[in-house]
Amino acid sequence: MDQVQINYGAVGAAALLSFVIGGLWYSPILFAQSWMREAGLDEAQTRSANMAKVFGLSFICSIVMALNLAAFIGAKASLGFGVFAGAATGIGWVAMSLAVIYLFEQRSLRLWLINSGYQVVSYTAMGAVIGAWK
């Protein structure tokens, strides 16, 4: 078996990009109101959360996701393959996994579209960074 080679600069940049996309995606500029409504949350609930913990753990999760994607893509990838691998991961694994959970939890299609859409865009962007970074 070949050794996995990971470009840690690309992983860090990809994780940061995913985190930034999430901040924009779930902001009032895009889907904050729809997401809160569909998730059954209000602004008071979101403000009462320990945001340092939420953001800190979310960033750690972004690093783990980027590391996993980088291991999957490999060191010799191109921008095109990175975009393809990221999109395939976002659509085929993450969005479909969420779909199964949302079906059993009887969550709305709109919530699935918001959350899965973020994952697809995020993984595609991470794949682009990882694939393009030499």
UniProtKB/TrEMBL annotation:
Keyword field contains Glycoprotein: no
A Pfam family matched in the record: DUF1761
Entry-linked InterPro entries: DUF1761
Sorted UniProt keywords: Membrane, Transmembrane, Transmembrane helix
Positions of transmembrane segments: 6-27, 54-75, 81-104, 111-133
Name of the protein this chain belongs to: DUF1761 domain-containing protein
Protein species of origin: Piscinibacter terrae
Source taxonomy: Bacteria, Pseudomonadati, Pseudomonadota, Betaproteobacteria, Burkholderiales
